[in-house]
Amino acid sequence: MSDQDETTHFENELKQRFDDLILWTVKNRPYNGASLKPTDFDDIWKQISRLAREGVDIGKRNAAVPEPSENGPQYVNSKPAPWP
Predict the structure, then answer these.
(1) What pLDDT, in 10s, does the model give residues 9-22?
(2) What was the pLDDT predicted at 29?
(3) Domains held by the chain: number
(4) Is 30 a domain residue?
(5) Is residue 76 included in any domain, yes or no?
(6) Residues annotated as region Disordered (predicted)?
């Protein structure tokens, strides 16, 4: 299988699994207030698919930050809020 075929297969399987998770979430949500719709998850899918497509190297990003045991931060905010 070529790299392009593997990438396409991966993206298709990821989308199918994500859609299954959304359907399960909508169907099984215990909270009876405002109902969820599959479209509520569109922004999340955009972020996940971008990570899958672009192959963002999270390992490289995280390697630049020292571990908490090395006096590094406990948490690294990867998407900071905009400045007010």
Answers:
(1) 888 898 999 999 99
(2) 85
(3) 1
(4) yes
(5) no
(6) 56-84
CB 29 within 8 A of CB 21: no
Are 74 and 68 a contacting pair, CB within 8 Å?
yes
| Residue 81 counted as domain residue | no
For 70-82, b/e burial (b = at least 16 CB within 10 A) is eeeeeeeeeeeee
Q: Which domain holds residue 56?
A: 3-70
Neighbours of 22 (CB within 10 A): 19
List, for residues 25-66, the tens digit of each pLDDT value: 888 888 777 788 889 999 999 888 887 777 656 667 667 788
Q: 29: which residues sit within 8 A by CB, 6+ positions away?
A: 35, 36
CA distance 56 to 52: 8
For residue 52, tell me if it sits in a domain.
yes
Amino acid at 38: P
Look up tokens 């905010």; give the residue: 77
d(CA 35, CA 1): 42
